[in-house]
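Build the 3D complex.
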Amino acid sequence: MGYYARDDFFNNPELLERSGQILKGNVTLDWMKLDVESAKCRPADNRRGLTFDDLNVGSYAWDAIPEKIRHNYSMAPRGAVLPPGLPHLGYDINRKSEVWSNNGPALYEESKARHWIPSREVPWDAVEQVGHSEEFERGLAQLYTDLTAMATVLGDIPSKWVWRINQEFVELKMWQCTQMFDAAQLADVFRKRAIAGGTGLGRDHAPLGELAKTVFDSGTYPCASASTHLLLCGLMQILLRHVGAVSENAADETIARFGMQDVSRSLAYGIGHMKYLLAERPHETTSLSGHLDEAENATVGLLASPIFISTLALLTAGSREGAASGVPQVIALYRRFADEHAARREAAGIPSSESPLEAFVQQLEA
Amino acid sequence: MAIKFPSIDFFRELARRMADNAAEFEKLGFCDTVMGVKVDGDSAHLYALTFDVFDCTDVRELASPDDVELDFTLEAPLALWREMFESIKKTGTPEPAYTLNSLSHVGDRMKVVYDDPEGHDKFYRFMATLQAFVDQTSDFDIEWA
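Done.
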């Protein structure tokens, strides 16, 4: 038992007497006397329905959330009347800039609207006759095994932090819930695809674990957000683009198309979060940049690992025999990833002149 | 009746069909982006397609990419656009090598041009809608410019 309520309610005669009176019909409706704002919200666009954007009004608006929450640590919904005696829920992430992105509420709505159902929408019958060699399928299964691990981490990150975030940031917390659900579905579909292909799951490996641990053990939520949303999601996006491009199987094409959509929303949140944070607290740039450089270092460990690079080479070339011929295209893939990642860092306000990822790709190209 | 490609009428017809196929696009979800389509050839053409919720609400030809704030632009020579649409025509969906993703992936047969990475990521964020949008050309009788 971690928390004992402030009263022994069952042995409180006054409380029992009051509830007994109500049961006898002496109803008190004092709670209806409220001093709250009356707001009439309607959908700005009926095609979207009533969205969080439509509720961004008056005292209910997220625009009105102060930078530091000092008045509410309970589970009360933002805008509700807060009587004395509400328990402190222990939220210790109470700064808006630590978590907020102005596109968060819209991304939450988009996530629901673009929800897909892998168990039914992937043409699983296409996996029965994959249309490629067993070696190619083994390579795909290895990549899907890696993607399963990445998606699991992608779900673990918001779940690690969401319960510590003040309830006043309700739209942001709802967005994190969709992130968790999206990540669960991605881990689900990658795992199913690897197993359904007939070769079974592939091999886990330490370099991937090192990257996952670097991201998962980020010391603050902003650092976790930067390494998860900018780096890990960027890596997953380009890997899914690659799966969609190299596999001629309709199941893979579907998984890639919908999977890249899911992780791209988190990329948008990550850039928006960093912009908001650094506008409020520009001095955070140094620690974020240092953390991202560290996470890039772990990413280099993965990209350089024999199992990862040879899997991509096999998939790119289409066969084990031709794998060596696929290496230049893998390097081109890494170049694109490094360029896109650098552009996102720049847009987010945390560019790096000592990017390990950039240095690694330059070395490969040399 | 044949529809000329590239032309404003081509994209307007796609927008009209998108509205007619509301159920398909509502299932795919909100799509909010302004996408450029550039067709390189003897005379280059650039179009801006505005997607809003489930619809393509505006189609226009641009004299310059600066006329509209584009999230990203897909650029390819006319011959490649033709190959893509002919591939879609065969079975209603493109062969794997002719999806928007495959064409724009490493190799740069189709270039994705952008100024802002957030705009660029919208290409991938709304990929299913954009692919379904171009797949609607499967029964077009296209007159090539």
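The radius of gyration of chain A is 25 Å.
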